[in-house]
Amino acid sequence: TVTPYQNRRFDSCFLTAKKAIESGKLGEIVEVESHFDYYRPVAETKPGLPQDGAFYGLGVHTMDQIISLFGRPDHVAYDIRSLRNKANPDDTFEAQLFYGDLKAIVKTSHLVKIDYPKFIVHGKKGSFIKYGIDQQETSLKANIMPGEPGFAADDSVGVLEYVNDEGVTVREE
User: Fold this and answer.
1) CATH code at 28?
2) CA angle centred on 18, ends 126 and 39, rounded to 5°
3) What's residue 5's pLDDT?
4) 107 phi/psi in degrees, rounded to 5
5) What is the domain count for the chain?
6) Which domain holds residue 39?
């Protein structure tokens, strides 16, 4: 059993996706994708243990987000690899968590050059897409501290499109 520190449950991108799911506007959720990608094609040789890789370093947090929404999965499939430097622990993973008809895909790669949505959610009544990761770290690196104007400002609230009870397609941005 892996129990992560649940700090990623407070990421603005996750909270936005959670709000879209919990609104009920999407209907029954059938698929969720969560991505935490980078473009860092060069990896210095830094051999380590499996827990030093992307899966245990970041994956436990992004999987915890999904588990906090849907609970313990019925079963899990995964692909964990080191693509940039075979001497290092993993830098790429995909985990698929299955909950009846719902499939949640959690991915991280260091070889994604074009921004991919952070969250993609499909339900029987609509879809939600959210670009951009939580901005707290970006703010701190720019020396913008909590409580200061602009801290963790997230320009992307996502796009929610669904069919309402009257059969009308509604788009919220």
Assistant:
1) 3.30.360.10
2) 90
3) 64
4) -135, 145
5) 1
6) 6-172
Give the SS3 label for residue 37.
Answer: coil
* Strongest mean pLDDT among 83-97, 124-138, 149-163: 83-97
What is the value of pTM for the model shown? 0.87
Pairwise CA distance, residues 40 & 111, whole Å: 6
Rounded to a whole number, what is the largest CA-CA distance in the chain?
58
Give the H/E segment covering residue 60: helix 60-70
Closest to 41 (Cα-Cα) out of 90, 116, 111, 114: 111
Torsion angle of the four alpha carbons 69, 73, 76, 80, in this order, in degrees rounded to the nearest 10: 30
Both tokens of residue 41? 């094609």
pLDDT mean over 34-56: 90
Side chain identity, residue 44: E
